[in-house]
Amino acid sequence: MALIPSQVLRVAILLSYFSILCHYRALDMPAHQTYGGSWKFLTFIDLVIQAVFFGLCVLIDVSSLLTKGADSREQERQLKKLIGLRDWMMAVLAFPVGAFVVFTFWSLYLYDRELVYPKLLDNFIPQWLNHGMHTTVLPFIIIEMRTTHHKFPRRSWGLAAVCCFGVGYVLWTCWVHQVTGVWVYPVLERITPLARVVFFGAMTVVICILYVFGEILNSYIWDPPHTEKVKGE
């Protein structure tokens, strides 16, 4: 039996995301006042995705409790729709985008932080908030994957959806540059146009790989042979 019920964990994670988003939105940063505001940053978009996802998880938990024991096929049908949406969000958005943000941010940060998170930002963003945006996202989503079985869509459909998200964000980034003349991330200012194309292509491949990794991890945790082995130990 789990030390902390999964329902309680989801509520706690959801509240933490609300806190992070509120503190982030309250920051008095010049970049937030320019075209696109916070929505031009993938980190902020990911925080919204995670908050919506865990909000949906909590909604399903509450709905399950309220309908428990009720003999209503309509309620059961609506609950299955919510569960289907939750599983789709986990597979296509919450895991791959969350893992992508953590992986790319810390990879670039360790190589040269000025490429993605200039030291100047330390004057605006406290360390705990930085880790809330770029670190805890991954363990939170892995906790959810470990405590609840999620059904992934067919791989071709899942990859197509992830690619659409990735290409959509690339186009949005290019549009922001077209309007403002400034790239969202410093790394894009330092490389040539051809290198940007390669960079965007490579990042799209990375997020697709992370989708497949999430699918494999979910299968490893929940497939019958592994589950039976763990129970028998």
Please, could you describe this protein's structure?
The chain is mostly helical. The chain has one domain. It has nine helices and no strands. Helix 1 runs antiparallel to helix 2, helix 3 (73-112) packs across helix 6 (155-180) and helix 6 runs antiparallel to helix 8 (193-222). The longest helix has 40 residues, at 73-112. The radius of gyration is 19 Å and the shape is globular. The chain starts with 5 loop residues before the first helix and ends with a helix. The relative contact order is 0.12. Mean pLDDT is 90; it is low at 229-233.
In short:
This protein is mostly helical and about 230 residues long. It contains nine helices and no strands. It comes from Kryptolebias marmoratus (Mangrove killifish).
Give the helices and strands, then pairings:
Layout: H1 6-26, H2 42-67, H3 73-112, H4 127-134, H5 137-147, H6 155-180, H7 186-189, H8 193-222, H9 224-232
Helix pairs in contact: 1-2, 2-3, 3-5, 3-6, 3-8, 6-8
